[in-house]
Every structure is written in structure tokens, then in C-alpha cells.
Amino acid sequence: MYNKRTIAVNHVKEHATIYIFMIILFLTGVIFGAIIVNSMNWAQKEDLFFYLERFFGEIADKEQIENTEILKSSFFYHAKYLFLLFILGLSVIGLPIVWILLFLKGLVVGFSVGFIVNQLGMKGLLLASLSIAPQNIIIIPIYIIAGSLSMIFSLTLLGKLFSRKIPQPILQPFGKYVMFFTFLLAISVVASALEAFVANEAMEAIIKSFYNQ
């Protein structure tokens, strides 16, 4: 266990620049999402809030959404996202797409939270804290790590292509790459479970309390 922890710490230290770059990229997306909310005019906000209210109304009126269905849907979404990052890491030309995907993830989070808080005030902050934050506390680091691993492996391939030394076998780095992504996929199950059994329940309870007041 101690040896594995040492390997992980050394890996992060060795590639600290890449991890910091990915974190900054994600946070930039969050900031841009908040800026978009503030730059929207009144009519645009009202149109979007109309659809949000319809969604809230459907949740308040109908029976509870099946948690198992949300769990499956959430997991398959994360699995597809991680698989895409995995595939993009296998090709050097896919690296810019990795950056775009991570930036867009931050943009969506920043816009979603920003819009809900902008329209609902403290109620929106409570809703975002209990229905958006729980799963994202886990899934955001997973995406940042996955994007970083994808970038690291892509740069490793690039280095081997242009290296004048005798090419080193790529099988061992690829094996580690697969192992890390498998581990991240397993952790994403926890994020999906939080979304299905914690965030969903909290969201339904809060929205129904809004309509019962």
C-alpha cells in the first residue's frame, strides 16, 4: 500500500505541470460559464427559466424517478466520456479535443450552477449544493485526472515518435494507461450512486418543497 502511494505521489510530482494545466483549464470553463449567465439578457434568461420551471413542475407532479435508472444512465454517460478521453489519448491529434472536452465540462458546471443561483437566489444555492455538488465532488477530479492521463500518454507517444534513441516498448506504459482508466471507471460508479441515491432524492425533496410553499 505504501509503495503504491509513493508511486502515485511521484507520478503527480513528475507530471505536476500537466495536472495544474488541466485544473486551470477546467476552472476557466467554470468562469466562462458564469460569465455567459451574467451576459444573458432578461428575455434569454426568462426563456430558459421557463423550460427549467417546466422541468421542476414535472418532478413535483409525478412519481419519484427510479433511482436505478438514473444510476444506469449516469454510469453509462461517465463511461462514454472516459472512453472518449481514453481513445483520444491514443492519438496525438486528439489532444486538443481532450482540452476542449474538459473546458466544456467546466463550462456546463459553471453555467448550470450560475444560472440556478442567478434565478433562484438562496434557494438556487441550496438546490445546486444538494443536487449538483455531491456527484461532481467525485466526478470532476476523475475527469481532470483522466484528461491529464490522456495528455501524458499522448505526449509519451509523441516523444517516442521523435526520439532518436532506440524506441522503448510502449506495451508497459499502455498497460498502466488501461489500468488507470479502469480504476477511474470503477470510481465513477460511486459518483453515479451519489447522483442517483443522494442528489436525486435531495433535488426532488427541495423542488417539491418549493411547490408546496
From TrEMBL:
Annotated compartments = Cell membrane
Main localization (coarse):
membrane
Q: How does it sit in the membrane?
A: Multi-pass membrane protein
- Give the record's keywords alphabetically: Cell membrane, Membrane, Sporulation, Transmembrane, Transmembrane helix
What domain of life?
A: Bacteria
Would you indicate the residue range of the signal peptide? none
Q: Name one Pfam family in it.
A: SpoIIM
Function, as annotated, reads:
Required for complete septum migration and engulfment of the forespore compartment during sporulation. Required for stabilizing and recruiting of SpoIIP to the septal membrane.
Q: What is this protein called?
A: Stage II sporulation protein M
Native source organism of the sequence: Virgibacillus subterraneus
